[in-house]
Amino acid sequence: MSVQTHIPATAMASRPAAGIHGTKMVARDVKVFYGAKQALKGINLEIQENRVMALIGPSGCGKSTFLRCLNRMNDTIENCRVEGLIALDGEDVYGKNIDAVQLRARVGMVFQKPNPFPKSIYDNIAYGPRIHGIASHRDEMDEIVQTSLKRAGLWNEVKDRLREPGTGLSGGQQQRLCIARAIAVSPEVILMDEPCSALDPIATAHIEELIDELRENYTIVIVTHNMQQAARVSQKTAFFHLGDMVECDDTEEIFTNPRDERTQGYITGRYG
Ligand SMILES: Nc1ncnc2c1ncn2[C@@H]1O[C@H](COP(=O)(O)OP(=O)(O)OP(=O)(O)O)[C@@H](O)[C@H]1O
């Protein structure tokens, strides 16, 4: 089946992923309930290392719920129950020996709305390394702050005002500050829940370029409503529908040759 979508071929992620990509995270038969209501119906998914996976699907299909399973953010939601297996490097993240705070340093998160702490730019980045005891000297912390801001593509814009409040930056800069904050604790996986939905097109383009660069060092899972964005930034795409993961494949395949008619309906704009 070949499908006519409204996504131009040129919008597809320009740099194909090189090399062999191991499995970083695995979901097996993951079910999530909010009280009596079932939000995910048994999700199976493999997330490959150093790649970007996009989660797409109509509103309310469970994308954010699934994303939050990956670093146990659902633990913080009252009434929410998770069943099944989520593994990081083969280890059950819901296992008895796993500390959720340590897990969230390994699997960081960037939210829809930039949410810098009401602190200086420097302290926004230094906060995580401080609580995790990552830096023992001031020089070491300076180095982490600088490297994190460089990796997030923000250093040149803020290097002369590190003591100014993070909340004084533009929306796009604030989101890059939040990405730098996530990077500062050396995560292996970065989860992004619609990270550009509050940003203008220029700031969005900046974040998309950044995502493409970041996958050299991190594994990224991004929830997006914007299918052009999914096509531009990801190598793998998973389509969710009514609590099911309908199909997951190479992004190009999902957007040009989907196997399921629900995916086809969504990407051609028939519903969603
Ligand atoms: N805290 C909660 N309490 C109760 N129900 C919830 C909660 N969070 C989500 N849900 C429900 O779970 C289902 C999945 O929601 P979720 O936010 O994961 O979907 P989504 O695909 O991310 O949606 P959107 O694209 O609109 O953000 C929805 O029916 C939603 O109403």
From TrEMBL:
Any Gene Ontology biological process: phosphate ion transmembrane transport
Top-level taxon in the UniProt lineage: Bacteria
Membrane topology label: Peripheral membrane protein
One GO cellular component, as annotated: plasma membrane
Keywords from the named record: ATP-binding, Cell membrane, Membrane, Nucleotide-binding, Phosphate transport, Translocase, Transport
Short name of any one Pfam family annotated for the protein: ABC_tran
PROSITE patterns membership: ABC_TRANSPORTER_1 (PS00211), ABC_TRANSPORTER_2 (PS50893)
Location of this chain's protein in the cell: Cell inner membrane
Entry-linked SMART domains: AAA
InterPro entries named in the record: AAA+_ATPase, ABC_transporter-like_ATP-bd, ABC_transporter-like_CS, P-loop_NTPase, PstB-like
PANTHER family noted in UniProt: ABC TRANSPORTER I FAMILY MEMBER 17
NCBIfam families from the UniProt entry: 3a0107s01c2
Protein's name in the database: Phosphate ABC transporter ATP-binding protein
